[in-house]
Amino acid sequence: MTNENSAVSSDDVSQGEVSPEVVAAPPAVHDLFVQAEAGIAAAADAVAAGQCIVLPTDTVYGIGADAFSSDAVQKLLDAKHRGRDMPPPVLVAEPSMLRALTSEVPQDAAALAKAFWPGALTLILKAQKTLHLKVGETDGTVAVRVPDHDGARALLRRTGPLAVSSANLSGQDAATTCDEARAALGDSVAVYLDGGTVGGQGASTIVDFSRSDRGRVLRAGALSFEDLVAVATRLEPLPEPATPDSSQLAAPVEPEQLEAPDASQLAAPVEPEQLEAPDTMEAIETPEVSADDDHGEHSDARATE
Predict the structure, then answer these.
(1) How far apart are CA 275 and CA 183, in angstroms?
(2) Whole-model pTM?
(3) Straight-line distance from the first to the last Cα atom of the chain, in angstroms, rounded to the nearest whole number
(4) Nearest Cα to 209, choosing from 201, 200, 218?
(5) Contact (CB, 8 A) for 70 and 233
(6) What is the pLDDT of residues 7-54, one digit of tens each?
(7) How would you label 157-178 residue by residue, b for 16+ Cβ within 10 Å and e otherwise?
């Protein structure tokens, strides 16, 4: 039975008296092996509308957003449960776009890009000062990569630079299938591009040129240090984890070095007859319990929850 008092007519909505309920559309999933053109077009439209998309790359699936939109990048970070102090890298379609994003490209950085792009190499460089990237707290730098994946690069040619991070919740394993990405990110993404299983070679290797022209490996990845240093001979390796100085470790104590207590310092045993009992039961005092004691117990329990 219809409740007449709650019924809303189309005239009411058209006259602005009642706002229609907005229901978010479920994410669209496009198989790049079957509907590549339609999928890439839908993803490009979603990016233009300030929404997040998921795309396959040569390493893992990534969640992407317009790198020049602060709101779009914030949606990306929120989807991953991540703060702006962990800015995502920027993916571009062509190596030639590197100079448009950076203020300077050291010779060794250019050599690495030429040798390994498209591929699993991320370069951190000083960002172009006139560039209005909105990827987070970067301290004037930008991390750039050209993925070795035809579908990803086709999308990037339509959208321009995208802020892209691995398609997973922060701290969890990266997705190597579209289903894994959907399980992690759900409705926080507008369009999923399914390119089958990707990766297998691990994450990209990250090299930082923002502080030194020599470059320094910040994260080991698909490209080994030997591969990189063959091209950039001055490259600094990833620092080895610190190990404790053996000279600062306490020497083991041998059993014979332990001193037994001096017998003269031990208290003499007390015989039963030396224990004095109270003269009367009246000498035993009963502790008073105030009304606040029960409140105090609950307060302690609340503090430990």
Answers:
(1) 72
(2) 0.72
(3) 48
(4) 218
(5) no
(6) 444 444 445 444 444 446 799 999 999 999 999 999 999 999 999 999
(7) eebbbbbbbbbbeeeeebbbbb
